[in-house]
Amino acid sequence: MILVQGSVLHAVAGAVATCETIPETLDALLPTIGGILGWDVGAAWRIAPEGQLLHSVGFWRAPEVCTPTFEAVTRASTFAPGYGLPGRVWASLAPHSIANVVADPNFPRAPAARCDRLRGAYALPLRAGREVFGVLEFFTHESRGGYETTARAMDTIADGLGIVLHRRRSHRL
Question: What's the total number of domains in the chain?
Fold first, then answer.
């Protein structure tokens, strides 16, 4: 666990250091985190400047994975607080996992996930204190629960990233 967490933190620090904008950083984080932790698909969301909706700012899939329907639907989606997985994370300020997104009543992309055979999901907020400004979500083709190990690693990453990205945003205002 500590070795995996250290590897992820090192890779994330490298990705953050090479990017200049928040959307660029979020997009770069998807393959970094998703690849190391064994996810099949990842999506990044950013709160729109008007602060009402989450908008897609990045999508990643492992090289051997094909999810054209889910990718198209994700890139075209927006989420309000509490709606869908990204909206739940935004509203609660906390990570959420779903063992099977196809069966989840508050997962509007379920038909696309079913089509591309996605099942398990984990999403976490990028925040500085109580201010959320983005959400990262990851998916797998397996129905699974028990994300405790993943959660510990990703929570550590999210807390550090939130502070870095908040500072980056503040310096650009």
Answer: 1
How many Å apart are CA 144 and CA 139, to the nearest integer? 10
Look up tokens 């870095």; give the residue: 164
**CATH code at position 63:** 3.30.450.40
Structural domain of 80: 2-172
Convert the pLDDT of each residue in 122-164 to its tens digit.
Answer: 998 887 777 787 899 999 998 766 555 566 666 666 665 665 6
Place of tokens 């995996």: 4
Degrees to nearest 5, angle at CA 80 with 78 and 86: 70
- Tens-digit pLDDT profile for residues 57-89: 999 999 999 999 999 999 999 999 999 999 999
Task: Using the CB atoms, write b or e for 38-72: b if 16+ within 10 Å.
Answer: ebbbbbbbbbeeeeebbbbbbbbbbeebebebbbe
Give the tokens for residue 67. 């999810």
Global pTM value: 0.83
CA gap 127, 75 in Å, rounded:
22
